Structure formats: C-alpha cells, structure tokens
Amino acid sequence: MGTLVWITNRFVINRLQLHHKAYPSAMESEEVVRGMLYLFLTVVGVPGNTAVIVAFLLALYQEHQLLPADAIVLHLACANLLVVGVRCLLETLATFRLANVFGDTGCQGVIFVYRTSRSLSIWLTFVLSAYQCLSIAPPGSSWASVRVLVARYLAVIFLTLWVINTSMSSSAIAFSLGSRNDSVLMQHSINVQFCYVRFPTALSTQVNGAVQVGRDVVPMALMTLASLVILVFLYRHSQQVKGLRSGASGGAERRAAKAVVALVTLYVLLYGVDNGLWVYTLTVRKTMSSSLISDLRIFFSSLYAALSPLVIIATNRKVNSRLRCVVQERPIQDKATTLSTV
After folding, report:
1. CA angle at 38 for the pair 36 and 39, rounded to the nearest 5°
2. Long-range CB contact pairs, 214-220, < 8 A, 24+
3. CA 172-177-181 angle, 5° bins
4. Torsion sign across C-alpha atoms 64, 258, 132, 43
5. Range from 82-86, 180-184, 331-335 carrying the lowest mean pLDDT
6. d(CA 37, CA 17)
7. How far is CA 121 from CA 51, 82, 98, 233, in A?
C-alpha cells in the first residue's frame, strides 16, 4: 500500500514538473505568434505607405501641385505610416526582446501617437469618400460648389482634424503607464500587453470607451452613406452608357470612385471588428486584465493601415506610374554605371 502511494505521489509530481516546464514554452510560442503577426504588419505596412508617400512627393515635385483627392490620400498614407511604424514596429521589437521603449513615458508617447494617427486615418478615409462623393455631382449644382469649398480649404480641414484628434487622444498621456504587478492599482486599467491604460474610476472607463466608439462610428456611418451614393451613381452611369464606350474622363472618374469604395469597405470590415472587440472589452470587465482582446483590436485596426496602401497602389494610376518609373530607372542607372567602369 505504501509503495502504491509513493508511486502515485511520484506520478503526480512528475506531471506537475512536466506542466511547469511546458508552460514557459507555451508562453514563448504565444509570443512568437504575436511577434510574427506584428512583424507581418510592419513588413507590409511600412514599405507600402512609404511607397505611396514617395510616389505623391514625386508627383508634387514634377507637377508642382497635387489634386485635392491626391493630397487626402497622401495625408492618409502618412497617418497609416505612423500607425504601423510607431505601434507595430515597436511591438515587434519588444516582443522579440530586441528593444523595449515601453516604460511609463514610452507608453504615454506610443499610445498617444497611435490613438491620434489611428483616428486621423479613420477621419481622412471619411474625407476621401465624401470628396469623391461630391466629385460625381453634376457641374453647376450646389454639391459641386461644396466640393470647390472643400478643395479650397483642405489645409484647414487637415489642421482641424489634427487639433480635434490630438485633443481627444490626450487622455493617453494622463492615464498610460508601464506594466505593474499591483492588482489594486490596476483595478480600472486596460491591459495592452506592455502597457496599461489606467482610469481613476469605472465611470471614467465607460465614458472614455463611449467617446472612442462614437469617434469611430460617426465617420463609419458617414463614409458608408457616401459609398452607397457612389455605388448608386456607378450603377446608374453603367445603365446609361450600356452598349456605348465611355470617355476617358468618365473612366478615370469611375476608377477613382471604385478605389474609394474599396478603401471604405476594407475600413468598415476591419474597424467594425475592432470596435466590436472594444465594446466587448467595456462590457465584460474580466477581459480588461488580459492583453488578448487588446492585441486583437490593435491587429485589426493596424491591418487597415498596412493593407490600404496596397489598395491605393493597385487602383491609383498616378501612384502606380510613379513607382514603375522609379523601378525602371534604377536598372538603367546601374547599367550606365557598369558601362562607365568597363
């Protein structure tokens, strides 16, 4: 009997030891998956947005001006580059323990820049869809006059969006801090892996969450409406020119409209998931202590910032032609250098 008890105890101890050894490896594999996902966003998003920015800067240098829609897309690419570069790149470096800036000050800066640029990306997508919606208005109509006003005061619109979104993201500076082990201090905090966003009360958490949802849902509803108007226009136009060959300007107009609809569709899908997870976090309190939901939210919102330049490159002829010229010039220059050294 004593031998049986001893064997049973040894079996239990061995199983506990195996579980203890397996647990860190499980955590390491989880970190590797997380790091690889953020690395994917960085590898796709940083070069993609940089390519779009370079293409428009080349167009600006060559033509000395940008069309209003091109200026909006350029601004959108800059905001998306901040989202991917500041958040995803730093998360990748910290996950693989290559560098870690997520102290109290680092968390405040990263979360502030991420929230501001993320919100700017949302509102700029709405401005782009609204401007494209106005662009299909018939000449001489009141909507065409509104489009002219938007184009004239586009710099003021950009500045206003920066001021509003910077102000709304200022809570990140007050409430963000590095990781802590104090459970009392973390009572009303949201775990975002390397940082915590700590609120003084449960009510302030709910209010801040509602403000963020409203800031996303309002432009989402407006840009969806604008996209529906564009789709109706495209359908009616296709019916009118059925069996006829449309002009070049009409073809360019339709391509631009379809590109904007594609961007809005991508936004609604990815940010819809993001906001659904955010509402789930606010309503199920126990999820705040886990970084899983926050990681998923950041991933889906950053996925838009990483994939949208691919949509722009594929659908915008100006970007496509400038990038093709850059790619074609480099082999010519290399060949010329080779010949000169022979």
Report:
1. 60
2. 215/119, 215/122, 215/168, 216/119, 216/122, 216/271, 216/274, 216/275, 217/275, 219/122, 219/123, 219/125, 219/126, 220/122, 220/126, 220/267, 220/268, 220/271, 220/272, 220/275
3. 145
4. negative
5. 331-335
6. 31
7. 17, 10, 28, 26
The interaxial angle of helices 2-63 and 292-315, nearest 10 deg, is 30
- Provide the token pair at 59: 């167009």
Q: What is the amino acid identity at position 95?
A: T
DSSP letters, 21-35, are: HHHHHHHHHHHHHHH
DSSP H or E run through 285: none
User: What is the enclosing helix (H) or strand (E) of 230?
Assistant: helix 202-240
Please choose, from the candidates 87, 61, 311, 321, the residue with its C-alpha nearest in 3D space to the C-alpha of residue 192: 87
For 194-203, b where at least 16 C-beta lie within 10 A, e where not — what string? bbbbbbeeee
Structure tokens at 24: 């860190």
Q: How many angstroms separate the CA atoms of 304 and 162, rounded?
A: 20
Candidates 65, 155, 153, 170; CA nearest to 119 is 170
Q: How many Cβ atoms from other residues are within 10 Å of residue 173's Cβ?
A: 13
Position 277 confidence tier, pLDDT thresholds 50, 70, 90: confident
Q: What share of the chain has pLDDT > 90, as a percent?
A: 13
What order do you get walking across the sheet with 176-178 strand by strand? 176-178, 195-198, 189-192
pLDDT tens digits, one per residue of 139-151: 777 888 888 898 9
Tell me what pLDDT residue 330 has. 53
CA 183 to chain centroid, in Å, comes to 32
